Amino acid sequence: MKILPRLCSDCRGNAAAELALVAPLLLIIMLGCTELGNYFWNEHTLLKAVRDGARYAARQSFTNYNTCAPDPGTDLSSSTVGTNTQLIVQKGSLDSTQPDLLPNWSTATFKLTCISKTTAGGQTMGGVYQNNSIGGQLVAVEATLTYRPIIAVALGFSGVGKQLYAQSQAAVTGI
């Protein structure tokens, strides 16, 4: 009978018991922060890549945008400028042998379109566009990519199928 009071006053296993109770919660918080950080990093990378693609497309010659003059909504994705812009967005380079900036690029959709021919936002385009026969052009680059979680798949959380979307516009300068 003297063992029970002695056993109740023994504190040697307290740290291990507390760790066993708190460790799952700490592990979930740590892995959740890692997954959330990865999501934001992927979103930022896609947004930066789309901005770079829009800047690249905007600095192409006006002659590449002759098809935009009659129809401002023209899809340029299959043109040479569109193909090169997609390489900039996908790989960060015109070199097609470079690795993709983001995983899961096979699920991506890409679009390069003309926004306007002579007016943008109700204002007549002037400056570099004033003496240009096709008028002012704005190009829009859009990309949608399926997010691929790094940790959630292994743990069975549902992050699969979430879409990352980015869009950027730039005025064609014809440089």
Which parts are unreliable, with pLDDT below 50 for 5 consecutive residues or more?
Answer: none
Largest sheet: 3 strands, antiparallel
Helix/sheet category: alpha+beta
Helix content: 25-40%
Strand order of the largest sheet: 1-4-5
Q: Order of helices and strands, N to C?
A: HHHEEEEHE
* Gap from first CA to last CA: 93 Å
Rounded mean pLDDT is 79
Instruction: Give the domain tally.
Output: 1
Number of E-type strands: 5
Structural notes for this entry:
With 175 residues, the chain is an alpha+beta fold. It has one domain. It has 4 helices and 5 strands; from the N terminus they run αααββββαβ. A 3-stranded antiparallel sheet has the order 1-4-5, covered by helices on one side. It has a two-stranded antiparallel sheet with strand order 2-3. Helix 2 packs antiparallel against helix 3. The longest helix has 45 residues. The radius of gyration is 27 Å and the shape is rod-shaped. The termini are far apart. The mean pLDDT is 79.
